[in-house]
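Per reviewer request, we include the raw input and output of the structure prediction for the construct analysed in the revised manuscript.
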Amino acid sequence: MPESADGGSYRRIWALAWPTLVYSVLELSLGVADFLMVRGLGSEATAAIGLNRQIAFLLESAALAVATGVITLVSQGVGAENREQVDGAVRQSFRLVLLLGVPTTLVGYAASRPLLVALQASPETLAHGVPYLHIYFLGTLFLWTSLVAAAVFRGTGDTLTPLKLAAGVSVLNIGLNYVFVFGAGAIPAYGVAGAAIGTVAARAIGSAVYVVLLVRGTPHARLRPRPWMDVDWELMRRILRIGWSPALAAIARNGARVVYLALLGIVPLGASLHAAAGVGLQVRLVSVLPALAFQVAAATLVGQAVGARRYDLAQAIGQRTVLLLALIMAGVVAVTFLLAEPLAALFIVDPEVAALGATVLRWFAVAQFFSSLSIGTQGALTGVGDTRPIFRYTIVTQWVVLLAMTLALSVGLGWVPEGALLAWVAAPVLQLALMQRLFRSGRWRTLRV
């Protein structure tokens, strides 16, 4: 529970942010490890992992509908010292995981091949990718359980427990993936599918540990087993009412980027722009990690302040989180500007395309500055429970501003590559302005979530 809005709040923000930052780095490293392991199996195997990662992002985005609502209700319950609300949110969130996760598993399993076909996967890639997705979707409940349980701990202000579990699960995940990809002893080599087997097995163990810890109880939360029929539909509705907008926004944002890449492919320099944008998106995956960490810190501390009815403190913490994040992201942007050429040359062999890649990296870095501050502001809005406009803002900025500007400037006027890059920057600038206006308006002071 935050005690003041002075410089001590910066220390509390950082204390909650850094474990989540390391947690995100570990999650990112698992994807890199999968790419490295299957590299020797051929380009089709690498393509299968790449396409499957995009589908996995959608599955994780769907879990946000529960995890976001959990952070809000748990953090506000802790701030209000309302143990009943906290434990109720924990119990009903796990019921939601079952109610939503089982249908998602069945639909995803059945749709695995059609999804990859829609992504223009080659027959060889399909041979690797379909078995992987089948196994991956069978592990949906383990993934969602881990994400929601981590949200419970973070909502109470404990970001170290998810970090410790992530470290253990990551080591186990990489080890199991290696065994199942290449085989060991009596275990045959499953190739690309082995990476899914190892991932699901590691997540199953991690989710089991999370459940045990919550059943035993923490100082602020406990998963109290009750009969299945003890369902609080109103509380479930409150969780989803908070979380549905950020979840749909994440899906809409990823969809807009797919269309954006498609538009780049039909303009002059299309192939070169695809390569350059691909490098920019990979570097973005790293630069977005601080924003995601500060988003969690803002949601937790702001939520606790709101729960205690300390609205001025909530406002101050939200703004201080964004300010601290801005200072860090300014450094990230500066480093990206300085290292743009060597970074582009590291991934792109052709000198002319590498030069274009360096230009794209610099534009993407500027856009990421504003996008990161928008992500941090979203954390503050999550803490106060005012998340409903987020989906609308994403549709306007991504599907209208980003895509319409790219279509008009690059495809219509032939302004390549500047038109598409200007659109990439304009979208997060507007998103940040809209999110900051919403948080600064203070209308959330009258909300009751």
